[in-house]
Amino acid sequence: MDQLTTKVSPVSVAETVARLSKLVTDRGLKLFGVIDHSGEAHAVGLELRDTKVLIFGNPRAGTPVMQAAPQAALDLPLKVLVWDDGGQTKLTYTAPAALAARYEVPAELAGPLAGPDALTDAVIATQPA
User: Fold this and answer.
1) Do the beta carbons of residue 94 and residue 4 sit within 8 Å?
2) What is the domain partition of the chain in residue ranges?
3) Which DSSP letter does residue 27 get?
4) How far apart, in whole angstroms, are the C-alpha atoms of residue 55 and residue 36?
5) What pLDDT, in 10s, does the model give residues 101-116?
């Protein structure tokens, strides 16, 4: 089973982050934050390709998962890495099936773990303005 899912975005890292952030909030999810790894690296004089992580979720959906499998809190809320790979923007996240298997999440609770699939599909389906 593939542990990670990676998709190509048709727009820049900044635009992809903006689109994903908007989709998260438009769909009623909570955007817990955006970690700007490359910005922090540059702040201390180090170089890092454009690299950001969006952290988001839904406490109503994630809490039952953590009640059933407390260790799932290590991977919840969900995260999507948006990064530059030689001029191509990519989105990478833990594959939902891998996440469910890692913590033996019961099938009836695993649905919310698939959130990044639909969100990232929507981000890459929209062409540049």
Assistant:
1) yes
2) 4-124
3) T
4) 11
5) 999 999 999 998 999 9
